[in-house]
Amino acid sequence: MKILKFNEINFGSYKNFKWGNNLEEFKTINIFYGRNYSGKTTLSRIARSFELKKHNEDFLDGNFKIKLEDGNFLTQNDVIKSNLDIRVYNSDFVKENLNYLYDKKGNIKGFKSIGEEQKNIKEIIEKREEILAKRNEKLKNIQINQDDISKKQQDKIKTLNENLTNKAKVIKSSSNLTKQGNDYNKKNLEKDLI
Description:
Elements: E1 3-11, E2 14-18, H1 40-52, E3 63-68, E4 73-75, H2 91-97, H3 116-173, H4 186-193
Antiparallel strand pairs: 1-2, 1-3, 3-4
């Protein structure tokens, strides 16, 4: 949805402004230019309030009526709840995002014209990467535990086999158990135990 015109403005440098028939309606992309103090920033602040979903702090008492291409109107009361998709690059944007131009100690903030959704997506990705890292750490610990259990099991099986082999040798060589024969071994002992 796009803005066609500012029907009425009582905001900033505009006092009881009414959009006349002599003014052309807005297009998809609009650039405001004019002399200093002619109202460019005021118009852009009205539009930017919809982008930021908050009223401009300098003009909290201002009111306006914007006509949209579908014939509906937006006012200052619609700023927070409106789904108007708009991007504004004005002096406020420059001060907030390119403050190094004004202050040598200022840092450049990352921004993209894709919008606030991009920031939210980045935060979601970072949170999910954090969750994934924690799950990978748990999985790594489970694998270490399983490897440890598997090693202990193999050691116990090896010890059991050695004990069975040794016991079978004792039985084979015992003079009291000659009935078992000279070929008595671990397999014979396992059968006898079962």
